Amino acid sequence: MKRVIIFVILSIEFCSLIFSQQNDFKLDSLLLFNKANDSISKYYKHVYKAEKYIMKGDFKKAAEIYEKAFTYIEIPFMADLGHAIKCEMDSRKDEGCIKKYIYFLIRKTGLKNGYLTNKEYQKLETWPEIKEMIDTLTSLNDTTIINGLERIHFLDQDYRKQCNKKYNGNTYNDFTRDSIAKIDSINYYQIYRMFENLEYVSEEVIGYRGWGTVNVVLMHNRQRKLIYELLLKSVLAGKLDARLFCKSLDDSNYKFENKYSVGGAALGFRVTDDCYMYMKPKFIEGFKMNKYREKLYVESISDFHEKMIWQMRNKDSGFLFYINVIINLDETSLCNLIANGIFNNHKIKNAKLYYSSEDNKETLESNAEKWAAEQNKL
Fold first, then answer.
1. How far is CA 259 from the centre of its chain?
2. How far apart are CA 268 and CA 351, in angstroms?
3. What is the DSSP letter of 225?
4. C-alpha to C-alpha distance for 313 and 358, rounded to whole angstroms
5. What one-character DSSP code corresponds to residue 304?
6. With contact defined as beta carbons under 8 Å apart, do 145 and 206 qualify?
7. Which of 9-23, 78-92, 186-200, 362-376 is the least confident region?
8. Can you tell me the distance from the alpha carbon of 106 to that of 167, in angstroms, rounded to the nearest whole number?
9. How far is residue 40's CA from residue 44's CA, in Å, rounded to a whole number?
10. Which pTM does this prediction carry?
């Protein structure tokens, strides 16, 4: 009887793996045979170029490039609009551009108070016109979709909180795993049904908090890939931010050619607030990853990590290109990584550590040397 049960379990796991791989192969095909939209491609290329000027501190040049980038797309993405308006305010203050960017942002979010109370905006010559525009604007959000996503987010988090409280911090255990998995599955397919009836999934439709909910639900359903086929259409049409999609796709453990990841976060992340580890991929792996990333309109692996490192070193810049991935190592693990290149009991090849400053580098390396010396005495 035990052999039968084991066989059934293994069969289910094998079928799940095969189904997941089939989904991956279908995504491979959708990406490889997609003909890139030249206009959308130019939008992203200009945005990435503007971000490089931000890192150089040349906000005027960045503002000029953002203005050019926004001519290639119907409605720019929130992250880029936020960076562009900051560059304008910190440099040339083109009031026509500022007004236009505020218009787009309010149409996406419905949020007005931040602009109405901002004293720097109030100093602009055209502020009376901008204020009048703000007062009359409404968002493009689909309230039915937004209310549905908020309800899903509540269900996702509330049950986990209940389990956490009932089992003294042990949220996932033998008594809760099945029920959590059931709720996760229901939430996933509810979102799928919401989105399959839309022409496109966009920030205008789901609101400024919508993707946060979607991303959480996708993280809790990593084995399910069907929705990515649906979302990809919106990405390729320039309606959904490719960078958010790419990160979520990577979180799902998607492997194209059943071998290579598409995202960059898995190759590098902060191990403390002041130390970033980047594991440079082998040539073929990097080539393959960049090939697929280009199909998704996202920048190369090396450019991605350059910005992640810049963010670590410029925490107070006001610019955030990507959500920081932080795995806070304890002191022993950090010292072992710095001194011996060992992470999670594995020797890391092609790994390089970057620090937030020279002072922090000296401090952390000195601590690692002392720790290594103590270990040699044991």
1. 21
2. 9
3. -
4. 10
5. H
6. yes
7. 9-23
8. 43
9. 7
10. 0.90
